[in-house]
């Protein structure tokens, strides 16, 4: 059988196949890198770079016909999560997208004390057309206060483990300290004016037909909340004593008028009322203020985040009451919400029509601390100092 040289037609067909294969591989490579940018650490190991470019603008190639959505305020939804929280935070983000953010495009910032897995990051990026940024915490922000004894902390954890929930949890104390004094300092939040704190496994029941960040800014609201239950007194046994010590040393940092009456009982001690901080929308100038930083540093030196179980919620709430007026604190009555058994569902008809919850599932209405929020008024610095017997 004679060997036949390939015809020009055969060579041409083979080259066309090779060229087509190369084109296919090139398109696949570009598509993968367009839709799934590389996951990498930046040079200072503070944050994961994902996506690698831009903060507020969307990539038009990535988001098809839903393009050009630019948030009007320098704001973001922010959560502290772990890789094990994937399904819980996915549920929360999906609901926020459905109820509000798909029309506004605000970014998400997720923070972790350990690197996020690739599957965690890609899975969450797929459910939203907004930017999702993933950041790491450093040891200064997530760890022991330099002012506490680790051996004493271990002893206190053992003593308190059966006294109250998270009584023996060290990581919970790391979290409360971080949320109280460091979250607003993370590099990913530096350019923000407002943040909306979100958490895994939170249900949002109501459509939000407006931009809450813009609403906060236009009305000069500095702190927004939904529910305000009382704190467990055994977790904050010396918090008010420590707060009064700070007030005595820093009277010059107090405003001339504030909503401090909200947190005082009939004996002018702390009444345990606090805003639940797993939902809070905050003008970050509050946490960046000289007064708040001084207050946090004083608390950190006292060691109560570890020796007791001072939560970020009472810390934020006391600070808001001391540094803000009533007109600067906003109750988001129209936001239906549920988190580990605490629910709020709006009563007014115009609000309830946008919700899927039952009106009877409404914790705040009639609750003691909420009634105080409605009934009480601002007091002067002079009146506050008189009540606290501070000269």
UniProtKB/TrEMBL annotation:
Name the UniProt record assigns to this protein: Alpha-1,2-mannosyltransferase ktr1
Keywords: Membrane, Transferase, Transmembrane, Transmembrane helix
GO molecular function: alpha-1,2-mannosyltransferase activity
Species for this entry: Mycoemilia scoparia
Pfam families noted in UniProt: Glyco_transf_15
BP GO annotations: cell wall mannoprotein biosynthetic process; protein N-linked glycosylation
Gene name of the record: KTR1_3
Gene Ontology cellular-component annotations: Golgi apparatus; membrane
Transmembrane portions of the chain: 15-36
Family per record: Belongs to the glycosyltransferase 15 family.
